[in-house]
Amino acid sequence: MIGAQEGEYTLVRLELRPIPFPVVGWIWIGAALSVAAVGLWVAVFSNPNLGFSLVILGLISLPFNPRFHRRMPRRLDVDTQGIRFLRGNSAVKVLPWDHVEKVLHGPMRWRRMKRTFPVGTGNERLYISFIARTDLQSIRVEGFEYELKPDDVERILAAIAEPTRQHKISVERKEWLVHG
Q1: Is residue 102 located within the same domain as residue 61?
Q2: Are residues 80 and 128 located together in one domain of the fold?
Q3: Terminal CA-to-CA distance of the chain, rounded, Å?
């Protein structure tokens, strides 16, 4: 782990698993099927050429939904230098420890709806956020997009104990109540 011995360079790597079909995915599928349904209606009642073109457009757009997942960062690397949010081998965001103001983590809960998330245990998801001086620099791994397990969060918290102590960064457990 980080800070095991003086001068030793260590890295904690967390492979992030996207939620199989986030809300964006379901909206994409619904929109594609709606275009196909409108195309069938237009083909039957007015213009067959335009209608069948819409049906084909709707059905062809269905396979393009998984591309959203390929663009998401898939790895979080934490070491004594800072935090890196990576997609493949390229860094999407790099946040040095001297720019971090606080670290927030905990469960995300929906107030009204019990079964909002497609996977997991009821209405609970986990998140961890590295809040920076500006919002654009902040790195957030949220339960809306990723499947985080309690062991993953605990491993990161153990890894950041020394750098947060050295830079006097507060680490808070906070329940995130989502209005839904």
Answers
A1: no
A2: yes
A3: 38
Q: What is the pLDDT of residues 25-66, one digit of tens each?
A: 777 788 888 999 999 999 888 988 998 898 998 888 877 765
Question: pLDDT per residue over 143-163, tens digit each?
Answer: 777 888 888 889 889 889 888
Task: Write the DSSP assignment of 108-131 as a string of letters.
Answer: EEESS-SS-SSSSSTTEEEEEEEE
Q: 3-state SS string over 88-104?
A: CCEEEEEEEHHHEEEEE
Provide the domain count of the chain.
Answer: 2
Does residue 118 sit in the same domain as residue 52?
no
| Alpha carbon distance 150, 56 (integer Å) | 44
Give yes or no: residues 146 and 60 share one domain. Answer: no
User: 132 lies in which domain range?
Assistant: 11-18+73-178
- Assigned domain for 4 exists: no
pLDDT at position 122 over 60: no
Give the whole-angstrom CA distance, residue 78 versus residue 10: 9
Cα angle 111, 115, 120 (rounded to 5 degrees) comes to 110
Dihedral pair phi/psi, residue 75, rounded to 5°: -145, 145
Residues found in the chain = 180
